[in-house]
Amino acid sequence: MNVKNNQLYFDGLSAEELIKKYKTPLYVYEAEVIRRQYNSLAKNISYPHTKIHYAAKANANPAILKIIRQLGGNIEAVSKGKILSAFKAGFKPGQIIYTCNGAEEEELRFVIDNDITANLDSLNQIETWGRLNPNSSISLRLNLDIGAGSHIYITTGGRRSKFGIHISKIKEAKKLAKKYGLRIVGLHQHIGSDVVDGKVFGKAMRTLLKIASQFPELEFVNFGGGFGIPYKPDQKPLDTKTLGDQITKIMNQFTKEYGKEINVIIEPGRYLVAQAGTLLTSVTDIKSNPSRTFVSTNTGFNHMIRSAMYFAYHNVTNASRVEGKKKTVTVVGNICESADIFAQDRVITNPKKGDILAIHDTGAYGYTMSSLYNARVKPAEVLIDNGKAKLIRERLNIENILDSI
Ligand code: LLP
What we know:
The protein is an alpha/beta fold. The chain folds into 2 domains: 2-29 and 274-404, Beta Barrel (Lyase, Ornithine Decarboxylase, Chain A, domain 1), CATH 2.40.37.10; 31-270, Alanine racemase (TIM Barrel, Alpha-Beta Barrel), CATH 3.20.20.10. The protein contains 11 helices and 21 strands. The protein has helices spanning 15-22, 31-42, 62-70, 80-88, 105-113, 123-132, 170-179, 198-212, 240-258, 270-273, 306-310; strands spanning 2-4, 7-10, 13-14, 26-30, 50-55, 74-77, 96-99, 117-120, 137-143, 165-166, 183-188, 220-222, 263-266, 277-288, 293-297, 316-318, 326-332, 341-349, 356-360, 380-385, 388-393. Strands 4, 14, 15, 16, 17, 18, 19, 20 and 21 form a 9-stranded mixed sheet that branches. It has an 8-stranded parallel beta barrel with strand order 5-6-7-8-9-11-12-13, surrounded by 4 helices. A 3-stranded antiparallel sheet has the order 1-2-3. The longest helix is centred in the middle third of the chain and has 19 residues, at 240-258. The protein is elongated. The mean pLDDT is 97. The chain binds ligand LLP. The site of ligand LLP has 23 residues, from helix 10 and helix 11. Ligand LLP is lined by residues 55, 57-58, 76, 99, 154, 156, 190, 193-194, 224-227, 267-271, 306, 310, 364-365.
């Protein structure tokens, strides 16, 4: 993304020309950014047995899954649906790892039938798995009382969190595994999301590896995802070189003590796709009261819920006139809810009706968390690759979805 003639461009294509063809609201993704992000992880982790499993919950558009596959990535899937999407995008069972909580027996059976490795999240899941598939291999998702993340709702470790088998239950987990002849070949941990402090990962990794020495049959350890991105203009990006060096150092030391080399899995979602995505929307109305100027758009939290749900900061720019006279405005959506705010009291180039606003860093947990709330259709999605735009998800007509709203 860059600015030319005071307009926002994506790999040579202006926001204005894109929306002339595809209309708004429109998710625009840049393939090159996904490749850059993937390589910054892949190149900086020199531990030779590292596997990247993209957390497909972040964005499972088939075109995006295909880019990940072409880069040599694998998939972390949260449900049967995500596994099916991964299959459709050409991933093989051995490239997919499944992690869910509260899984139904039917879903576990599907995972077993398709020969997919699972990170089991509770004692009950071990019991069900053992009954359905005795003498097989499993991985355990552990909660080692370490949580992190940019909001409490995206923190997935610690005692407030519903995720994982708590450290205090490890003995019972091992007992159950033994009862069904299950080999524990993997240990998994995902402490939370949008973490930019590399030191936190170091602490979490070392804690998991301390426990790992109690499991003699390990083939892998899985450190989860959670790698954050700089949403705010003054935020520093995660230093992937230091992170990679840390993983390599910690693993080299561990394998020496453990007596064999095992795989490391990481499951980045946001880090790979967030910055690749921009939600383009049109200004539909502007109104002021004595304290605020509201800029209304033709999107809302039905299309991008992060700001409403986690008070997440997303940079908003005026794609029609990037520079110009500034104004402090509150950018809102068209949904009948007071939480439908993208940016409160934000300084942007004075918007006019009909301008295109860009809501940045929306490639992860954007479209995928969208809904049909207020009976409005979802945005279309376009991928920009090598200076060419391709429609990768059509906008449906309201008539097509009347039965679902
Ligand atoms: N692995 C597991 C087991 C996970 O549960 C998640 C995310 C990831 C990997 C990927 O995390 P990431 O690298 O993307 O941080 N909707 C929220 C994020 C929820 C993440 C849920 N789990 C958001 O918009 O911030």
